[in-house]
Amino acid sequence: TMSQTPLDSPSPRASCLDLWREKNDLLVRQAKVTQDSGLLLRQQHLAQDALQGFRELLHSLRGLPAAISALPLELTVICNFITLKVSHTQGFTEDQAQDIQQGLERVLEAQEQLGPRLECGLRELWDSVLHISSLLPELLPALHHLAGLQAALWLSTDRLGDLALLLQSLNGSQSGASEDLLLLLKTWSPPVEESDAPLTLQDARGLRDVLLTASALCQGLQELITGTLPRALSSLQEAASGLCSRPVLVQVYTALGTCLRKMGNPQRALLYLVAALKGGSVWGPPLLEASRLYRQLGDTAAELESLELLVDALSVTQNSETPQLLIEVELLLPQPNPDSPLYCGTQSQAKHLLASRCLQTGRAEDAAEHYLDLLALLLDGLEPRFSPLPCPPGPCMPEVFLEAAAALIQANRAQDALTVCEELLIRTSSLLPKMPWSWEDARNGAKEPINCPLWVSATYLLQGQAWVKMGDQKEAVSEFSRCLELLFRATPEDREQGAASNSDQRCRPDVALQQLRLAALISRGLVWVASGQDTKALQDFLLSVQICPGNRDASFHLLQTLRRLDRRNEATAFWWRLEAQTELPPEDATWSLPLYLETCLSWIHPLDQETLLEEFRTSLLETSDL
Amino acid sequence: MSSVEQEELLCYNGEVLVFQLCDTEAAETPILHVRRMVFDRGTRAFAQKSTGFFRMEEENSHFKIICCSCVSDFRTGLNLPHVMIQSEKNNVFDYFLLLLHSTNKFEKRLSFNLGYELKDSLRVLNGPLVLWRHVTAVFCISSKSGTVVSVPVNFSSIVWAGEIGNLGIVLLGCTQKPSKSDCAPWDTKFCVYSLDRQEILSDTYIIPQAYSSVVTCVHVCAAELVNNQLRMSLIALTQKNQLISFRNGTPESVCQLPFGDPCAVQLMDSSREDSLFIVSFRSNDACAVWKKNFQVATKWEKILSLLIDDFVGAGTEQVLLLWKSSSNSDCLASFKITDLVSINYSCQPCWTSLSHPLTSPFHVCLYLIIPVLEGQGLSACIVFLLDLQQHLLLKEKIISKSCKALINLVEGKTGTSSSTEEVKLVMECLVPLCGEKEHPAHTFDEKLSDNLKDSEHLIEKMWYRVMDDSLVVGVEITSSLQLSLKDVTLSLLLDQACDSSFLLKCQNRMIKLSTDSLPASPPVPFEIGSEAKRIKLTLHSEEEKSCVCQQPSKKDCVQIVTAVTSLPPLLALSNFCCIVLLQIRERKNGNLSEDRYVPCGRLFLSLDDISRGKYLVTFPKNESIENMEDFFVLLAALHKFCFQVTSSGHTLTSMKTWFLEYIQCEVIKEFPEMLVCKRPGSFYGTLFNWKQRTPCEGILIVYCRNQSVLFECLRYLIRVLPIKCFFKKLKLASEDFLTDHLALTLEKELVTLTSSLSSALAEVESNFVQQYEASKNMSSVNVASLSEIEEKIHPYRKELQREKKQITLGMNLKVSGALYREITLKVAEAQLKSDLAGQKLAIYVICL
């Protein structure tokens, strides 16, 4: 059964340890060469091969009983394997914890200390291994290397307590000496490897540098969010002066920009942002931050330009740079959550921000274009679902439609606004609850049914305004009437409850409802005025004043109409009331209205308030003089 | 009736032999039955071919089959089935080996008795020869001699025994009892013993000693005697549940087995391309491992037994797996025959196999998939390229816009009172490190006596040292005077007894060192290139100011001018004296310069002094230098190399720390920017200076003894630095050349801009004229009634009005896209060139 294959291969090695060591060194060298080859696909293939090589090597080493003489090599191979695996799969998994655990168990096995400890966790395992290893100096470099990987694993899984304890034992300090992670990392000095030690892909000191930058950045971001700015600044500067890859440097500079802006140093913040943009290929976060900065500086043109660039930047799919076969800072950082300064959202979110800022700053034409682009983007389904920007809270889909319609009307594109409104009505009609609707249903239901009647009535209001722009008064009146009909179905006692339960929301629906009613009444009133039907107008204005007794716009329109109808006494009485009101502090406006509603309200704002008041005052004085 | 006591299976030439030891009630002695079973491909089942039997002779004994195998008989050389029977009576164990002939007749070949029972350490080998281990000794009996012989080696275990070429039967085992708790497992040793030669063979080429405590079973694939040394290629099973292949004593491949406690491994020649190792486990499981890639091909659980032979007559081997069937007493009722490639027969397929090997349809699919994947790859690449292009364009746009915005801000368009302060602060951060400047040796101006001036407040110190072949003279100049090498020359005048004195050829160097540890600059990157350009573009007086502000403050800086000259020619004089003279060129307003000569002192040197080592340089031993002069001499005399170090992906901000940690450098206490290497070896004492320019770029200056040390040093650096760096050696042209070059490129930039602007202007003008003429023509054609003309002219008037307005607003100055592109390209190219020139000059300033 023995096949006769020639066996005259070169003479055998002195020991298989040397052989494996050579294999390890060869794999490391190959992996390092791989990094230099430009082709991503080939690199991945080679990394896969190297990974397989390390895995086989580890099997070979574990095929022997644990021995002190072989452990430095075995631990180094484990470290290389973990490093390659983590960088290849771009993240830590449970496998790495198991690899580390096996390595530690082998150390104990070599010392015949393995037994009842098998059940204990990694933390206890490290304690006993580090306790033993103090007697085995030859193991220390490899153990520190493995500890570096453990630290990276714990940092990436946010187990900072364990991490601090591990660093304390590595530093040989008493537990409870210092909890400052950055300080612990800085004082940790992994022992120098012998020059004849097996090669490593990334040594313990390199890992320490990465850990230091990652934890400084994490800490800085945390402090930035909690508002301890001077500490955030120093943490972030620590991160910037550490080892960073280009994308990480962009993140650090952006965070520094945010920090300095909040500290009132916009120029220095800008320098960092420019540096961030120059430095890398990740432009989203610095551009968004730049827009915030310019907004704070009041430079609207620059702000909008930054936002435009942000939209462009987010439209480019990020090409993944050829990965380094090392554990990098990015791997240890969590994905930025929405309240992080490094969060820049999606393209549609940026587009919405741009459009709404244009509308807010009075650039209606631009706003209209951007809103149309945004709607096209959303309706084409290029993005699976539009989720509002959570910080500050953004609008949902129907509100985007309404804002778009408002912007179009503002930009004198009433016909387009009508189209948008129709589209919205088609989409929301199915959501509209059966009449009559009350806030009771609203409270129990989800967000959409709560607001759905609001949106529909707002759509009618905008349609009416579009008709006004187009000069069709009849259509306008009918739209405003439909709007009011819908709005007045809400029962007042329910409203009170609704107000109470929704008071914590960004915009209380009851306030929005009230303002909508006001806007619709005044709008219809204005159409009546334009068509010369002042009595009808008077009715609407009276009603609007009843709804919002303190509202100055409504009061002025009423006053003006009374005057036009020559009902002097009523007008005078009302004027006195108005004068008295001006003494009072204005109604609290802590909550903001939706942007589309703000825009609607701006249209019904009487133009010449002061002149009217002045005229009134003089005419009254004249009459009193008489 | 008969009751089956024991049943054993053996395969032989594609047949399955079923041995049954039956106790019959009628007869006194039990009978050994054999059934030859053949697999019928038609019925897909085993059929009985023939039977035979053997009646045990001894009465009142307990019989047992302890082993069956196919071994060769030395008389015929034929491989035949053998069955080993044990009979026990009153604690005396009789053993006999039965040979089964093809006629189904049994022949008793060998018999012996022992006072103990043989456990599973028994092996039947060719001969036939029976081998077993008892306590610590190994015994054997062959059919030739017929007597039990003890092997003179203390085997603690035998992992393999078999016949090898001209060595005959060879035993492979361990000679010490492996202890599981031993922390040095290499103590136990493998031993190879040839029974025929009765000698221990060298074991170097078989299995490394490290494995002696874990190997449990071996399958030898090939064995050969080369230069009287036994070489083997073998497969071993270990206690760590691994299958390992060794070749010439080196482990080649390792396979982690899917079950624990493997007990046997067999080779199955399944096809021409690849073979399989079939591993059986004590847990009644089995698995197959591909020979080529050493990967587990498939696994089977809870099997009764497995046999390997060519059962279906295909010419290659298959594995026969048998499972216990509860209903049927026939052991061949539930089986599977497979070679894991193409042959697959099974009797109860639903629960026999756990996993399926790769079958041919899959391979077909694979071929169909590959071209599709390739197609996708290509289009993905194109998409990737397009993305990249867009990426680049966008990047350019973003940078230009951001710069514009920054400029606007800096120019104060939205400035606040705090902004200027802040800018100042930033500018301070941007202050680069000062540099010294180098200049080739000057020829001496003879008119020194005219301009000699008082030197007391100018020269702090003068000293000289001998280093290798050079004489180094250093002069420390008071820091109140800011000088560059361009402005100073240190000359050595050989003062002979005779009245003629002559000038020595020497190399000058200016050393400026900061004694203050600079605060770590905040990591805002800055553009050196454009900075230098901006300085050049400003007025001359401003330039000087900005130069001054770039120097570290005066009191923290040490200025030394050194002169290095060749020593051997001077030693010929055995005793000589030199006058050290400093020439300072002071720049007055404008370009006129005035020379000023400062005598620094005399130096006396004799051969005796040198041989006594009086002026020899000592290398710095501690962090602080005991002898400052020696250090300056080192800086002057060592070779100086400048490198631009860049990293494409990472920041280099920790470079200084890396030098301290990886190269074992130490910071020189007096001059914190200098690092001295304390790593034992050839580059001990090498000096480094790291200057960070941008986060990802910096200048490294290396002072070392010679070029080979430099190469060694760089090689080491590249190996140990934790990130990939690129080192570019900077060739230092003269400063004048660089300045001229910058001036030239700036001029070109300006010319390009003006010329392209004028061409654009010309185009706009010609366009305008054409339009004007066209409209004139149009209007002249229409000659109709006056009112009509009036009506028709009206829109043109309006047009004219509009255009006039536009021209005044400068809005109609349109040029064609092609011209615009051409202009931007030209200007960008010119700007790039001047930027590069500016950068070069800036690097030069840093290096010196």
Task: Tell me what you see in this structure.
- The complex is a heterodimer of chains A (626) and B (848).
- Chain A has 626 residues and is mainly α.
- Among the domains of chain A are: 2-187, no CATH class; 415-495 and 507-626, Serine Threonine Protein Phosphatase 5, Tetratricopeptide repeat.
- Chain A is built from 29 helices and no strands.
- Chain A has helices spanning 16-36, 40-62, 71-89, 94-110, 122-133, 140-156, 160-171, 181-187, 204-226, 229-240, 246-262, 266-279, 284-297, 300-315, 329-332, 347-360, 364-379, 397-410, 414-428, 439-444, 447-470, 473-487, 492-501, 509-530, 534-547, 552-564, 568-583, 595-603, 609-625.
- The longest helix of chain A has 24 residues, at 447-470.
- The relative contact order of chain A is 0.05.
- Among the domains of chain B are: 1-130, Lipocalin; 638-732, Alpha-Beta Plaits (2-Layer Sandwich), CATH 3.30.70; 735-760 and 816-847.
- Helices cover 27% and strands 36% of the residues of chain B.
- Mean pLDDT of chain B is 74; it is low at 181-186, 349-376, 415-455, 525-554 and 779-783.
Layout of helices and strands:
The complex is a heterodimer of chains A (626) and B (848).
Chain A: H1 16-36, H2 40-62, H3 71-89, H4 94-110, H5 122-133, H6 140-156, H7 160-171, H8 181-187, H9 204-226, H10 229-240, H11 246-262, H12 266-279, H13 284-297, H14 300-315, H15 329-332, H16 347-360, H17 364-379, H18 397-410, H19 414-428, H20 439-444, H21 447-470, H22 473-487, H23 492-501, H24 509-530, H25 534-547, H26 552-564, H27 568-583, H28 595-603, H29 609-625
Chain B: E1 2-12, E2 15-24, E3 31-40, E4 45-55, E5 62-72, E6 79-89, E7 92-100, E8 106-114, E9 123-125, E10 129-134, E11 137-142, E12 148-151, E13 157-164, E14 168-174, E15 190-194, E16 199-201, E17 215-226, E18 229-238, E19 242-247, E20 250-256, E21 262-268, E22 276-281, E23 286-290, E24 296-300, E25 305-309, E26 318-322, E27 335-338, E28 344-346, H1 360-410, H2 417-430, H3 448-451, E29 459-467, E30 470-477, E31 488-495, E32 502-503, E33 507-514, H4 528-537, H5 540-550, E34 557-566, H6 568-571, E35 575-587, E36 593-606, H7 607-611, H8 628-637, E37 639-646, H9 655-662, E38 665-667, E39 674-677, E40 687-694, E41 697-704, H10 707-720, E42 726-729, H11 735-781, H12 786-809, H13 817-847
Antiparallel strand pairs in B: 1-2, 2-3, 3-4, 5-6, 6-7, 7-8, 9-10, 10-11, 11-12, 13-14, 14-15, 15-16, 17-18, 18-19, 19-20, 21-22, 22-23, 23-24, 25-26, 26-27, 27-28, 29-30, 30-34, 31-32, 31-35, 33-34, 35-36, 37-41, 37-42, 38-39, 39-40, 40-41
Helix pairs in contact in B: 4-13, 11-13
TPR repeats (chain A): 457-490
GO cellular component, one term (chain A): chromatin
Protein name (chain A): FA complementation group G
